């Protein structure tokens, strides 16, 4: 089955750090931009960050810039999100997704993983 | 940042109905507009990319249109499995932004 599988979500105290992982199964991520999207409880989807195929370019949502770092290991077909100085407002289900890009530069997210829950609370 | 506004925020409909969901952007960005379906506890699913292109494997009862700042997702002949939350997303400017979602419920 072609899928992305996230892991690493847990309950963590404010100010602490956490690493999320995303592994490709039945699909390769190495030639693709990859992205993280989150959904806070009762809220909609929010794009968090993305990274280019060789890991040399990253982009971040302003509210996580300087606290979150996205990286990848193409040899392991895996993606990571290192989250530092976590805040209560970072509580969310975090999804990874493959970012497809057409020849015209149009891009979209497909497929997505089922998500991993991060709860930031004391 | 580009603000994406979806309306209605919720909609009740019956199996077999035809519904239209609307997404409006705060500024134009070409056709870099995608639609996703999301069910609780599941991975979001891409339905439409580039405003009107149907993703492979998605039933043809889903269609997208629009340009400029106004886009629509139409679902014809609603099926029980279509009841979910639908999100539009612009993928032109970073940060990529989503609408707040339209929750489609069974009447």
3D structure, described in words:
The complex is a heterodimer of chains A (122) and B (107). Chain A has no helices and eleven strands. With 122 residues, chain A is an all-beta fold. In chain A, the strands form two sheets. In chain A, strands 2, 4, 5, 6, 9, 10 and 11 form a seven-stranded mixed beta sheet that branches. A four-stranded antiparallel beta sheet of chain A has the order 1-3-8-7, with no helix packed on it. Chain A is globular and about 45 Å long. The relative contact order of chain A is 0.31. The mean pLDDT of chain A is 96. Chain B is mainly beta. Chain B is 0% helix and 50% strand. Chain B contains no helices and eleven strands. Chain B has strands spanning 4-7, 10-13, 19-25, 33-38, 45-49, 53-54, 62-67, 70-75, 85-90, 97-98, 102-106. In chain B, the strands form two sheets. In chain B, strands 2, 4, 5, 6, 9, 10 and 11 form a seven-stranded mixed beta sheet that branches. A four-stranded antiparallel beta sheet of chain B has the order 1-3-8-7, with no helix packed on it. In chain B, a hairpin with a 6-residue loop joins β9 (85-90) and β10 (97-98). Chain A binds chain B through residues 4, 35, 37, 44-47, 50, 59, 61-62, 95, 97, 100, 102, 106-115, and chain B through 31-32, 34, 36, 38, 41-46, 49-50, 55, 87, 89, 91, 94-101.
